Design the sequence.
């Protein structure tokens, strides 16, 4: 951290200590004196409503999925970050279903260590339900059907949350990102229930609701993520503040809050995004999360008559175009960096792969380009378009053809022609380690590749699995050996300082990318092993021969010349992680791969580099090796092929993956 950031954090700690006197304990909300004119304006009106005909425009499949999930919630059933819950009729807002721990609802928020599982449980599980997104889904079901049970359940649980989580009490006040997301959902809950008879009593005429909306915004105005934390967190804070100040302009400070949040959001989106439209955290899931945050906040500002500037709208559009360019033929994104399946607003039934919904949202706001993949319209797209008046945001300079290379982000996609099925899709990673000094959501994955056939993970990025509570698993899924790349000298490419902290990141760069129509190729290198003694550098070239349906990977370790200046080579480990649908039969340095039960069945022959000792591993725990995580809280055994041995300097290690025609 810089001296300025250290000074800012010291000031923030002082403010947190001084705010202890402002804590409101559970049970004390009803005893508070009435709100004064200094706290809330006498006239309160919610104007940003959906046109009633928007409900009829939601396609039948989307409507049916929303109602089915809303009915599950009425029964008390839900799945959240890999945990099946049966307590959703009246959830405990402080209980973690993974560990069984319950945190104290009376604890002063800033006295809690949110990463101490003994004190708060798995905090992601606790926070996730308190984003209140499941209530937004129930409100959507009411908007579509008019069935009172959905609205009544929203009202009951919202009153429960507001009553049991007063200002600065408990773990749900420990992170600004959670407050920002919660405010956006509160705006949508109010919007979707606008015609329900009880909505005004639930919002405008409720002192408890008024206080909570005000408390949330006071908190965000006081505690802004800065410096090394100015990543998706500050965007969530600014987006929530902007959305709330536009949707609920009911406080004397609302206009100031709106102006400050609009400025902060525009600046932060620009600093968090490469000119190509790729999010600088280089974690695919967070690209979608930041896009959604920015877009929902921008929509609220436009509906309020105070639109964000054209450059911010253009940046959001470039993020949508980048998403459309990155996906494979099953509209699946890369699996780069951390993933916590973060969503902002739940207007549709949640799906494991939310990128089709994000692209549908982008289509509803910006309009799809001819090269975009086709995605089904859904409620989110219909509602966003309706709020913006039914037209699309016109943005100049959009790409006329699908881009495959994002040079500023070091991200290149090699793929077969659209008519060549099943599609071969390969992601090459030659970009920065992550964003800002801590690179919180990065993995030690420089020069890693993903290869898919017809959307099936063949050479797979294993994923993330967990953030908190299981440090050995967190470490494995971040590690170099946990990715399809090369480990040198038993060291990670980047030096890790903690679960969300990197002390010395590897700097990767793309050297060349070319495509003659038959063969597409990419070359990159990184300097992460220059810290070794003697130093080493890893260079990788990937070639896709479309006609031969062949992916070739050539790795080379370079360093000082042999002799007295250094060794003739380095000890290396090379890992290739297969997707969970893929079986492997290993014979020496050749593996026969097959995925007969996948959505797109296939086979391939994997010729591994000679000179290394190859072994297959699946579902091992001592040490951890051979696992795949489809999402936070989920892991399944999968085959990892591991090569170990001595690599001579400058001698290529060549891997050939030949797919059956």
Sequence:
């Amino acid at each position: 951290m810089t001296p300025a950031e250290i000074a800012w954090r010291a000031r923030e700690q002082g403010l947190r200590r001084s705010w202890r006197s402002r804590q409101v304990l559970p049970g004390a909300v009803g005893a508070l004196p009435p709100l004064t004119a200094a706290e809330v304006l006498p006239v309160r009106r919610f104007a940003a409503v959906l046109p009633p005909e928007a409900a009829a425009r939601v396609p039948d499949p989307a409507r049916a999925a929303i109602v089915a999930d809303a009915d599950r919630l009425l029964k008390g059933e839900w799945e959240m970050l890999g945990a099946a819950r049966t307590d959703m009729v009246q959830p405990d807002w402080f209980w973690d279903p993974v560990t069984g721990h319950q945190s104290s609802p009376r604890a002063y928020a800033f006295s809690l260590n949110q990463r101490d599982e003994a004190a708060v449980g798995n905090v992601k599980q606790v926070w996730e339900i308190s984003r209140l997104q499941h209530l937004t889904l129930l409100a959507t079901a009411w908007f579509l059907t008019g069935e009172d049970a959905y609205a009544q359940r929203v009202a009951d649980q919202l009153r429960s949350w507001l009553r049991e989580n007063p200002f600065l009490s408990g773990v749900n006040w420990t992170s600004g990102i959670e407050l920002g997301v919660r405010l956006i959902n509160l705006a949508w809950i109010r919007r979707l229930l606008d015609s329900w008879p009880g909505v005004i009593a639930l919002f405008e005429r409720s002192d408890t609701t008024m206080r909570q909306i005000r408390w949330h915004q006071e908190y965000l105005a006081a505690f802004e993520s800065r410096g090394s934390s100015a990543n998706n967190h500050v965007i969530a804070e600014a987006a929530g503040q902007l959305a709330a100040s536009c949707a609920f302009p009911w406080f004397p400070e609302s206009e100031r809050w709106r102006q400050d949040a609009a400025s902060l959001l525009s600046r932060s989106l620009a600093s968090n995004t490469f000119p190509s439209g790729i999010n600088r955290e280089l974690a695919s899931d967070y690209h979608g999360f930041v896009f959604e945050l920015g877009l929902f906040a921008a929509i609220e500002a436009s509906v309020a008559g105070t639109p964000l500037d054209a450059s911010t709208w253009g940046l959001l559009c470039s993020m949508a175009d980048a998403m459309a360019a990155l996906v494979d033929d099953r509209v699946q994104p890369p699996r780069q960096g951390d993933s916590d399946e973060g969503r902002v607003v739940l207007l549709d039934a949640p799906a494991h792969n939310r990128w089709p919904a994000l692209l549908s949202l982008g289509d509803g706001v910006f309009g799809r380009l001819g090269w975009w993949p086709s995605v089904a319209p859904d409620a989110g797209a219909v509602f966003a378009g309706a709020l913006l008046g039914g037209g699309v945001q016109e943005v100049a300079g959009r790409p006329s053809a699908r881009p495959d290379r994002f040079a500023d982000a070091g991200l290149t996609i090699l793929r077969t022609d659209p008519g060549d099925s099943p599609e071969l899709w390969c992601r090459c990673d030659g970009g920065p380690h992550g964003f800002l000094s801590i690179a919180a959501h990065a993995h030690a994955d420089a020069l890693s590749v993903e290869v898919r056939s017809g959307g099936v993970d063949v050479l797979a990025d294993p994923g993330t699995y967990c953030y908190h509570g299981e440090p050995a698993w967190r470490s494995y899924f971040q590690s170099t050996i946990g990715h399809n790349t090369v480990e040198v000298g038993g060291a990670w490419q980047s030096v890790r300082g903690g679960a969300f902290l990197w002390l010395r990141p590897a700097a990767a760069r793309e050297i060349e990318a070319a495509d003659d129509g038959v063969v597409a190729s990419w070359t990159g290198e990184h300097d992460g092993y220059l810290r070794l003694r003697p130093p080493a550098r890893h260079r990788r070239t990937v070639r896709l021969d479309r006609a031969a349906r062949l992916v070739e990977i050539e790795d080379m370790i370079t360093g000082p010349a042999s002799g007295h200046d250094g060794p003739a080579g380095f000890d290396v480990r090379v890992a290739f992680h297969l997707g969970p649908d893929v079986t492997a039969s290993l014979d020496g340095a050749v593996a026969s791969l097959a995925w007969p039960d996948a959505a797109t069945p296939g086979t391939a022959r994997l010729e591994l580099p000679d000179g290394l000792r190859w072994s297959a591993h699946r579902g091992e725990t001592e040490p951890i090796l051979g696992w795949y995580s489809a999402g936070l809280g989920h892991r399944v055994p999968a085959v990892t092929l591991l090569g170990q041995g001595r690599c001579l300097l400058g001698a290529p290690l060549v891997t050939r993956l030949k797919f059956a025609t």
The radius of gyration is 26 Å. The first helix runs from residue 3 to 18.
